[in-house]
Design goal:
Shape: flat
Oligomer: single chain
Number of helices: 16
Bound molecules: 1,3-dihydroxyacetonephosphate, iron/sulfur cluster
CATH architecture of the largest domain: 3-Layer(aba) Sandwich
CATH superfamily of the largest domain: NadA-like
Number of domains: 3
Number of strands: 12
Order of helices and strands: HHHEHEHEHEHEHEHEHEHEHEHEHEHH
Structural class: alpha/beta
Length: 354
């Protein structure tokens, strides 16, 4: 059989690949209801029957379009359950998503997360098209420091290595020696063999790391606007109201919260702790959606939810993911010179923790 080449040039093929597609039918028909029922069974404890007729057609359209566009969705643990469980191809914390990004073979990566995560995917797999469904999905930590701030810190602390939390822009990563995430910060700091290390920009993560190592940590003044709101008093109040409650905290929380937690770890570290320990009652002191996502997999555990939402993560919706696929928006690019230096910081971390 003869196969006809429809395109006269690679440019024409590329234009066709990126061309907008027509909006699919989003009716919740009886056929669709039947087709999507097994998926609803999975999430029925965290997605209401009122929500499902709205979500199901979007989920079906997104999963069909992913094949058409040769795309995969990387979903952070803070995505809402209809995204996390129903359209995400890979789920995880920042480190796991960075690793997954490096291995993606599909042409397009949709980052269901925030902008610095999309930039990290671009650094890990520069030949892929990286799309973020909402360009405004930022992060208060990433916004707390600029590349010029890092240059000033280097001048103030000559010879002191600079470790940057992954929650920063590529421009900031480019000025640093090595990157870290909440799951490997202690290991990264100790790997440098230096008596003093600058750990930027999260003041609370830096304080937490300082309790876990003999290396002297110099911190920046950035804070996560979600985790800084948790207080020790509210946790004590919950503990009194819920005897036997286990409290699991993210290291972006204030030190007095971490001090009274039963375990501290990255978002995936927290999830694994719950899966391994099966507590009767647990409070995840972190972004609210994560409790719903874990509840799907650990149905016997009762989740006590302090509902602090990340306004940036919550900008990502099924509607915007659908538009990202239909219109191939919004592409995340990085200046090649900045990317080369930023990539070194991220790759050093990934190689260290592989
Ligand atoms: P994790 O790397 O633990 O997923 O943290 C990312 C984040 O933004 C937490 O607020
Ligand atoms: Fe940034 Fe905090 Fe939102 Fe995580 S939860 S993306 S650290 S603002």
């Amino acid at each position: 059989m003869e196969t006809l080449e429809l395109y006269t040039s690679p440019d024409q093929r590329e234009r066709h690949r990126l061309a907008p597609l027509a909006k699919p039918n989003l009716d919740f028909t009886p056929e669709l209801e039947a087709e999507m029922r097994p998926l609803y069974e999975k999430v029925k404890n965290v997605v209401t029957p009122m929500e499902w007729p709205h979500y199901a057609p979007l989920i079906k359209a997104i999963n069909d379009l992913k094949k058409q566009r040769n795309a995969v969705i990387l979903a952070h643990n803070y995505m809402t359950p209809e995204i996390f469980h129903c359209v995400g191809d890979f789920q995880g914390d920042s480190l796991q998503l960075a690793r997954e990004a490096a291995n993606v073979e599909a042409e397009v990566i949709i980052q269901a997360g925030v902008h610095f995560m999309a930039e990290t995917s671009k650094l890990m797999n520069p030949d892929k098209t990286i799309l973020i469904p909402d360009l405004e999905a930022g992060c208060s930590l990433a916004a707390s420091i600029t590349a010029d701030d890092v240059k000033r810190l280097r001048a103030a602390y000559p010879g002191v290595p600079v470790v940057t939390y992954v929650n920063t822009s590529a421009a900031v990563k480019a000025e640093c020696d090595i990157c870290c995430t909440s799951s490997n910060a202690v290991k990264v700091v100790e790997s440098l063999g230096a008596p003093r290390v600058l750990l930027i920009p999260d003041e609370y993560l830096a304080k937490y790391v300082a309790t876990q190592t003999d290396v002297e940590i110099i911190a920046w003044k950035g804070r996560c606007e979600v985790h800084e709101r948790f207080t020790a008093e509210e946790i004590e109040t919950m503990r009194e109201a819920e005897p036997g409650l286990k409290v699991i905290a993210h290291p972006e929380c204030p030190p007095e919260v971490i001090d009274i937690a039963d375990f501290t770890g990255s978002t995936s570290g927290m999830i694994n702790w719950v899966k391994d320990n099966h507590p009767e009652k647990v409070m995840l002191v972190t972004e609210c959606s994560m409790s719903s996502n874990v509840a799907v997999e650990v149905p016997d555990t009762q989740f006590i939810r302090p509902c602090n939402l990340c306004p940036h993560m919550k900008r990502i919706s099924l509607e915007k993911i659908l538009d990202a696929l239909l219109y191939m928006q919004h592409e995340v690019t990085i200046d090649p010179e900045v990317a080369e230096r930023a990539r070194r910081s991220v790759e050093r971390m990934v190689n260290l923790t592989n």
